[in-house]
């Protein structure tokens, strides 16, 4: 049964940690001010912060569309054996992008009422017109042309389609692992097992440019697998980044030193988060003024909560 709580439950994720390291004020709005902002009787500030929390930008929206599409294609393939052609996938991506644009430019009031179910682009909300920056539009058009084909030809999709020794396990869901008594959130794009090689493969779809992978994110994937499945050796886990812009796959294997380091990071990060709590028992935060703003004003322009700091 859903229970309305005055303060949110405390949990940890790598994105939460990064938000605090970037700006404590943004962290406060993201995880505390916006809490219960979806309720009809919510305080105006909570409702406002909750709306802003649900802003997205063109690159993030494109990434979420592609991830949802991939999940749908794989799920449908496992049930029917059919994979849609590249042109159809591009068409579905284009349709979703257009819907997001229409939401952002014509459904402002609907977004204010139901911000989680309506799309609002940061570029439109904080922009001076109902037009997206042309540079970004062209960039996304280019990504749309290459992403679908690279997905269909990816190493992961080829294995799922043509390797009879593949055992599908999980896809695209928030998962929970426990480090001691602490709840840690992890999102796995795709998890399956190659029974012939006795290897566990975690595939992570990337829709942006290739960058140095965060070893802590990889370690969280491995910790989840070790906690929830009977994995004999850490060496049996393969974490594969599928870069859909470049059409390349990069595989990683972790060692126990990295796993220890991520657990140390979680511990020190939780200590810092606790410093911003009035009452750690019920996760009651300090007053908002105790969460300092970043000094990087250029970064502020891209923050969802910009207007709360600069009315």
TrEMBL record:
Residues 11-309 form the PD-(D/E)XK endonuclease-like domain. One of its GO terms (molecular function) is ATP binding. InterPro entries: PDDEXK-like_dom_sf, PDDEXK_AddAB-type. It comes from the Bacteria. Pfam families: PDDEXK_1. Keywords: ATP-binding, DNA damage, DNA repair, DNA-binding, Exonuclease, Helicase, Hydrolase, Nuclease, Nucleotide-binding. GO terms for biological process: DNA repair. The keyword Metal-binding does not apply. The keyword DNA-binding applies. This is CRISPR/Cas system-associated exonuclease Cas4, RecB family. It comes from Salibacterium halotolerans. The lineage of its organism: Bacteria, Bacillati, Bacillota, Bacilli, Bacillales.
